[in-house]
Amino acid sequence: MAEKIAIVESFLSCHVCSETFRDPVSLSCNHSFCSSCLQRFWEQAGNKNCPICKRKSSKDLGVNFQLKELADSFAERQKTGSTETERAKRKKVEVVCCEHEEETKLFCEDEQKAVCPVCESSLHQSHKVVPLEQAVRNLKDQLRSDLESLQDKKNKHQQVKKTYNEVIQLSKKQLVSTERKIRAEFNKLHQFLREEEESRLAALREEEEQKGKTISREMKMIEEQISSLSDSISAVEEDLQKHKVSFLSSYKATQTRARVQSSLTDPQLLSGALIDVAKHLGNLSFRVWEKMKDQVHFSPVILDPNTANYSLYLSDDLTSVRHGDTNQQLPDNPERFTKYANVLGSEGFSSGKHSWEVEVGDHPDWLLGLVKESVDRKGQIGASPKHGVWCLAHSSGKYTNGAGQTVKVKKSLQRIRVQLDYDRGEVSFYDPEDMTHIYTHRDTFTEKLFPWFAIGDSGDAKTTEIKICQTDVSL
Question: Could you read off the pLDDT of 159-179 as tens digits, one per residue?
Answer without folding.
Answer: 999 999 999 999 999 999 999
